[in-house]
Design a protein that fits this description.
5-stranded mixed sheet; 4-stranded antiparallel sheet
Length: about 270
């Protein structure tokens, strides 16, 4: 199932992920996510899992569309608080993971984001990614199980489970500043009630807006990359909503003409 995810999100669960906030340089430093941590999904991100993505689309790459720093996984250039200047796998104070340094823009959004970091409003981060290489580790496989447990920051978490997922490679799309941790995209539809109909209306609204953007056909390469990522998000949201809404209702109400347009711009 993990290999079929279009666009997954995963938040830090190991405590504060912010290492420093430099107001003079307007730079925020921290970890988007930690390695060797058994999270609530029984996933363990392993060292090297983001290396390929960072090399190909990190701030030092020649890629046109680089990995972005977002707010709440919002893939809109007008809602991005700053630009990543450093992105690498690094170990600091016993924590190994996806380390970032982002320079906040001198805009209203950038200034507000910087203030929110300083005041502790923003104290967590999350990644937007796709699973590429996942190994299922069963407790019965004693050697493999013990090998992963020996790496864990929180080995006691493994005592009550029989299966772990060792994540050897991910395709990293973005790192987000978030006010709370979440491993699902549907809350980012902005629906507080949790009512399936409300989720459905929010998703329909996002698809309609997205369809209008595609029809304009005047976007830059960088914007088209963001549109492609947004299409993966929408597909994943629909997949998650299947647990809340009968499949027949989704097909009848969400409109497949819009989805056909979305499919044209999906990353492979």
């Amino acid at each position: 199932m993990k290999k079929t995810d279009h666009y997954s999100v995963k938040s830090t669960e190991f405590g504060a992920s912010i290492k420093d906030v430099d107001t003079t340089g307007r730079i925020v430093c921290g970890f988007y996510n930690a390695y060797n941590f058994l999270d609530s999904s029984n996933d363990v991100l392993l060292m090297g899992c983001a290396k390929k993505s960072i090399k190909e689309r990190g701030p030092l790459s020649d890629a046109t569309a680089k990995i972005k720093h977002c707010l709440n996984h919002e893939l809109d250039v007008t809602k991005m608080p700053g630009k990543i200047i450093t992105l690498e796998e690094r170990e600091i104070d016993g924590i190994t993971g996806i380390y970032f340094e982002t320079r906040m823009s001198n805009t209203t959004l950038g200034n507000d984001t910087l203030k929110n970091y300083l005041e502790g409003v923003y104290d967590n981060h999350s990644i937007g990614f796709r699973y590429v290489n996942v190994n299922i580790i069963e407790r019965e496989s004693t050697k493999a199980w013990d090998g992963i447990v020996s790496l864990l920051m929180n080995p006691k978490q493994a005592e009550g489970i029989n299966t772990m997922y060792a994540i050897k490679e991910i395709q990293l799309y973005e790192g987000s500043t978030v006010a709370f941790g979440c491993n699902s995209l549907t809350p980012y539809l902005g629906v507080k009630s949790g009512n399936p109909d409300s989720y459905k209306m929010a998703l329909m609204s996002r698809i309609n807006t997205f369809e209008q953007t595609l029809k304009s056909g005047t976007q830059s390469d960088d914007m088209m990359e963001l549109i492609s990522l947004q299409s993966l998000q929408l597909k994943q949201m629909m997949s998650e909503l299947c647990d809340l809404i009968p499949a027949k209702e989704i097909k009848n109400d969400l409109g497949y003409d819009a989805l056909k347009e979305i499919n044209k711009f999906s990353l492979k």
